[in-house]
Amino acid sequence: MTGYEFVSHAEIDNREWLLESLASLNELTFGHYDGVVASSPAFMEWYTARPGMDPTLCQAGLTGDSLVSSLFVTLARMRLDKELLVCGIVDTVMTHPDHRRRGLARGLLDRAIAGMREAGADLSLLYTAVADPPAVPQRLYEGLGYSTCELVDRFVKPPPHARECEPAVRVMPHVEVRREFETRLGGRSGWLALDDALWAWRRIDHPSDYTVEVYRTPDDTLAAICTGRLLSGGRPRSFAVMSDLAPRGGRITADAIWSLLCAAPDDATATVLCPRSDISLAHALEAAGYRAAGTEAAMLLPLSEAAKEQAASRSSPWYVAVESIVGV
């Protein structure tokens, strides 16, 4: 590819320039998508501090003094069926519109996959939008050996959310609450080992323009709600993303969804990412007035025999790390 240079993020000395360039490229790449973060350098500074994100594995494509392609790689311990394996999570694969169809994304992914293998990763995970026929990104990932292991539907409910119900109560993100999430969700495939650093990054150290709070419903369902502004129709709009919905008994109810909605801002479009394997969650969302508005494919690339065996035998429901899709 004449005129382009591939480097890791670690090789770019000017961090301020990198964050500004990443935010600008993100807007150009995903600005027309519904339900993604309206990016900024401040947001990128928080996001690139994600525990396990390795700047030596994150890749960039440069031409002259411009960043025209990029991706992130985070190493994390992820459950796949019965095992906790080292997973390289790839996200925010983006290329400037004027530089597409020149092999940049494939070149960066080839470098990232080689780096993950060298780092001892058992597998790699990424999410991509589903289309019929499959769009270019999905075909690219399939050509590199990724295959779909789960479909994740994006459910949305526009405002208002008024209903006679008891709202969920905000709870402080103490370590005891973290352990409750681990107990209720930690057996799912896709679950990321929730240590102190990841918990703090997700629930405490968020950017000032994105509020993240943990709630408990009257029937003892735990969930996180992130509020801020997501893109819709190319413009930032108020949103409330509900994630880590964790009922005590394993089966969530429509009443619990309504209780969470009553705790969200009245003017916000509510969003939940629902894996197809969580049938009770889909039914509860539909009963609370949500509608499906797009689908993502969770795609796995096994890099070790252990990962191949666990992927082939997976029977547990899927856990969605919402930051790998929405970014919040």
Topology summary:
Layout (H helix, E strand, L loop, with lengths): L4 E4 L6 H16 L10 H7 L11 E5 L2 E15 L2 E13 L8 H15 L4 E7 L6 H8 L3 E11 L11 E3 L3 H11 L10 H8 L7 E6 L5 E11 L2 E12 L7 H10 L5 E7 L3 H9 L3 E12 L2 H9 L15
Parallel strand pairs: 4-5, 10-11
Antiparallel strand pairs: 1-2, 2-3, 3-4, 5-12, 6-11, 6-12, 7-8, 8-9, 9-10
Write out the CATH superfamily name of the largest domain: Gcn5-related N-acetyltransferase (GNAT)
**Strand order across the largest sheet:** 1-2-3-4-5-12-6-11-10-9-8-7
Apparent shape: globular
Total of domains: 2
CATH class type of the largest domain: Alpha Beta
Largest sheet descriptor: 12 strands, mixed
CATH architecture of the largest domain: 3-Layer(aba) Sandwich
- Proportion in helices: 25-40%
H/E element order: EHHEEEHEHEEHHEEEHEHEH
Q: Calculate the mean pLDDT score and round it.
A: 93
- Count of helix runs: 9
Radius of gyration: 19 Å
Distance between the termini: 34 Å
Going by helix content, strand content and strand pairing, the class is alpha+beta
Low-confidence stretches: none
- Briefly note the CATH topology name of the largest domain: Aminopeptidase
Please give the number of β-strands: 12
What proportion of the residues form beta strands (DSSP E)? Answer: 25-35%
